[in-house]
């Protein structure tokens, strides 16, 4: 059990890092599982890979709490003489959640209808490697194109409902094709429609909250809540390490994109996709 707990720490770290960088957490998990295999049932393993995302989601909630929580006490100078500061509903936050829901609709509809079918037909190294390479090439192309243009949408608050829906359509690609990277596809889509890198990244992180939480809860319901004590410890360990590594990597990425573009991640995806192809065609 101790060995499996140590392995869950490793998987949690990789999940926390690759979930937010546009490099595909699925591709990294598939490769890591080839070298580090936990001694657990397949049903638990399939659930573990999805549910440890809850740790990553909690990191976003913590870092973006003031952006996503709509109730604020005493803002705007409103004050009741008898009861003290009043709770005020922040309309800007409500608009952000409304845009988030609009962006979630395409992936939610397809994911609920075709979740098992997608896992059966596309969750394999061929799909993952192809999407790693294609999205990597797309990042290089878009970043080269954007060097000559100025983004129309500079902040997350400026994102329109139309832009939110279009970003959600790009997220749908990631929901169908493993290896695309949810963050990669949404950031790429946002850049293509004229959203700045910081706004694209921030909206992508917040968009992950309902999407990944929903996917994790769906897997939990399918698996059931009956865990053995070792399984529960392994799952919680993976979630905690995913939470810690997510906080660090989100802060890193937000600082990185202030001065740099996403081209290095494009090249990394292409190389990783080639590694996946070579490993599964020649190495096995």
Automatic annotation (TrEMBL):
Belongs to the UppP family. It catalyses: di-trans,octa-cis-undecaprenyl diphosphate + H2O = di-trans,octa-cis-undecaprenyl phosphate + phosphate + H(+). It comes from the Bacteria. InterPro entries: UppP. Coiled coil: none annotated. Its EC number is 3.6.1.27. Catalyzes the dephosphorylation of undecaprenyl diphosphate (UPP). Confers resistance to bacitracin. GO terms for cellular component: plasma membrane. GO terms for biological process: cell wall organization; peptidoglycan biosynthetic process; regulation of cell shape; response to antibiotic. The chain crosses the membrane at residues 44-65, 96-114, 120-142, 163-180, 200-221, 233-254, 266-282. HAMAP family: Undec_diphosphatase. Keywords: Antibiotic resistance, Cell membrane, Cell shape, Cell wall biogenesis/degradation, Hydrolase, Membrane, Peptidoglycan synthesis, Transmembrane, Transmembrane helix. GO terms for molecular function: undecaprenyl-diphosphatase activity. It is found in: Cell membrane. NCBIfam families: PRK00281.1-4, PRK00281.1-5, undec_PP_bacA. It is a multi-pass membrane protein. The gene is uppP. This is Undecaprenyl-diphosphatase. Bacitracin is thought to be involved in the inhibition of peptidoglycan synthesis by sequestering undecaprenyl diphosphate, thereby reducing the pool of lipid carrier available.
């Amino acid at each position: 059990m101790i060995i499996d707990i140590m392995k869950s720490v490793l998987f949690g770290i990789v999940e926390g890092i690759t979930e937010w960088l546009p490099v595909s957490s699925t591709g990294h998990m598939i490769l890591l599982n080839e070298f580090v295999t936990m001694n657990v049932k397949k049903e638990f393993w399939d659930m573990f890979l999805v549910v440890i995302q809850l740790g990553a989601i909690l990191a976003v909630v913590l870092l973006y709490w003031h952006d996503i929580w709509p109730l604020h006490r005493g803002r705007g100078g409103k004050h009741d003489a008898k009861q003290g500061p009043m709770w005020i509903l922040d309309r800007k936050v409500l608009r952000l959640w409304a845009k988030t829901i609009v962006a979630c609709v395409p992936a939610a509809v397809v994911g609920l209808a075709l979740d098992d079918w997608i896992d059966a037909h596309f969750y394999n190294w061929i799909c993952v490697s192809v999407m790693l390479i294609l999205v990597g090439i797309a990042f290089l192309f878009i970043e080269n194109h954007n060097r000559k243009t100025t983004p129309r949408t500079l902040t997350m608050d400026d994102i329109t409902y139309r832009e939110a829906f279009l970003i959600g359509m790009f997220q749908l690609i990631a929901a169908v094709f493993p290896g695309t990277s949810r963050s990669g596809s949404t950031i790429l889509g946002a850049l293509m429609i004229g959203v700045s890198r910081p706004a694209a990244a921030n909206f992508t992180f917040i968009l992950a909250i309902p999407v990944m939480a929903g996917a994790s809860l769906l897997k939990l319901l399918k698996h059931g809540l009956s865990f053995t004590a070792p399984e529960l410890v392994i799952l919680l360990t993976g979630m905690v390490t995913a939470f810690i590594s997510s906080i660090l990597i989100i802060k890193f990425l937000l600082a990185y994109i202030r001065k740099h573009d996403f081209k290095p991640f494009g090249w990394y995806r292409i190389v990783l996709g080639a590694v996946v192809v070579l490993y599964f065609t020649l190495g096995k």
